[in-house]
Amino acid sequence: MSSWRSTILENFVPNVAKLTLVSDPDCLLTEEKLAMGLRDRGFDLIEFNDPMEFRYAYESKYRSIWDWGEYTDLVVVLRLQNAELESLPYDLLQAGRKLSFNLGDLFPNLSYPVIEKLDRGLLDLLYEAQRKSPPDRMGDNTTKDFILRHVFGVAPELISTEVELLRFLLRLHYGNLAIPSMLADRLVDVFESSGSFKGWSLSQIIPDAEQFFVFIQERWPIFLENLNQANQVKEDSEAYGLKFQGPVILPFDHQDIRVYIDNLFVEGKLTPVDLPGMDIAKDSWVLSGISAAKSDGEGLRLSRLFEIVDAADLSMDSRYTDWIAFAMKWAEISALIHTTSNARYKKRYSETGQKLNGLFADWLEAHYASLTNLPPSTPAMLHHVPRHLARSIEDQTSKKVVLVVIDGLSLDQWVTVRNIIQKQNSDLVLRESATFAWIPTLTSVSRQAIFSGKPPIYFPSSINSTNSEEKLWKQFWQGHDVSKLDIVYKRSLGDGDAEATMDSLINPAQTKVVGLVIDKVDKIMHGMQLGAAGMHNQIDQWCRGEYLISLLNYLSNHNYEVWITSDHGNVESIGKGRPTEGSIAESRGERVRIYPTPELRSQVSSRFPFAREWPPSGLPDDYFPLVATGNDAFVNEGDSIVGHGGVAIEEVIVPLIKVERRTQ
């Protein structure tokens, strides 16, 4: 077979059985591209997890259709470990054919406990390596070495110099490669046993990107001083108070290293430093790592960021992780455009954004539905976030978690927030990632998905309101064996004394799960008349008021694991006309209109070519959105607004941040 997906897809032929039951403990069917392949063949997927939720979707969307004589190809996926298909309800077992897939069948000669830890997006490389070089039966360590060599492109026994090690670590962490902890431990063991890297903090900087970037950051000014002082730098790391062990001077100027370092500064993963009196040529490669006071730092960053964005090579075949990685770079550009006076780049920014958002809207129509059922181990969508937190609590019963939802915060506005938090408390580690909001990107849709841990199809009666969030939040956690007394929810936060509010709300000795909604950014947005630049300015001022840092410090000091996300972003848009539709629209947003039938929606959409009839995947049966694309809005011609509801990158891909306290 040409790929591992082909071996599975050959079992799914349309119109053979209206119901197929699949045991899938390794989450293979819900892998993004395989799920899309099934949908292309006409198959719908439903996960059997919560019996009540499943029964609601099954009876309303499928059984009722079958009873009327219509045909659908439905796949019910059971992916709990050690769960047998025979545990499914009797009526399903009687009606459906049965299949089973697992990693052990796909990779029979590799160690199952090792390969099950791999991100499913890496299986293509592993399957191709197995096809080209069929391995003999392997144990754990030989499987780890096989994966490291063929998937991550590293043969640890061949890395013996500082340049080789640094180049590998930069490729690993800059590329956001998801290396499992057992593979990281294997690398540490091999490197330490070789004796080539004595004194390096390998157990910290190999598995942890944030720790590695701190390791690089604290050595960067020493490298610059060495350039300026003709090799007068001391080799004793204690003299510089370095947190991580290893060489004092790293070979940043090596041709294989400096391209990564340049990009890390440009993309905001490293922070430029200010060294007064340093004489650097205007065309020197190190300028990206020197603060703007010594050069046209902002213009230099923008120029380099546009080069990186232009080389992104996104397409209709891109994975959702490719779009997330891109969105985080695009956010850095957007933040600079809206917070600095670089007028010469604004036209390029606008033109590039329009082109990318057109591609993004096309990609979403084809791929979005396949994201819904992805496993929550790495949350691809907002409703995966509480399920991800629940798994971590199950693994560590003493853990306490807080989910802070900053209503309406876009990814580029997070960049502004992040920069201030880092100055206010350098001991907080911000582990940055992003995830997909629910479409339409409305608060009542996407925020309820967060607090319920469910797609909107499961809360049809409250989809136009946020008043059920507390009930949904508590229901979710009680379903994961957390006592109602240990669960807290609070909204309408963002002003006043954060510590006093928390003291009155939670008991750190008892409260285990906390859900908080900060609506300050959303209030700023809906009153904004100064566009995206005004948004950043107001958010900057709010952050400097220290409500958010006070909240994070309080929660961190009381040993909570803190996560920050947003229900949707926002985008500056220009009006292209307001529909005159009387009362046929159930919701009349600036970037989305909601209709009770597809026919009513079509009557309006024909007059607004910038809008798309969004497919109702995961939405209630009588909920049909007409969503805006690009930077257009359903407001009076020429009016400028900052709004949400549509399918722009800035609205759909939102921050997902884990906040930790630095321990070293």
From TrEMBL:
One Pfam family of this chain: PglZ
InterPro entries hit by this protein: Alkaline_phosphatase_core_sf
Protein name: PglZ domain protein
Organism (species): Dethiosulfovibrio peptidovorans DSM 11002
Organism superkingdom: Bacteria
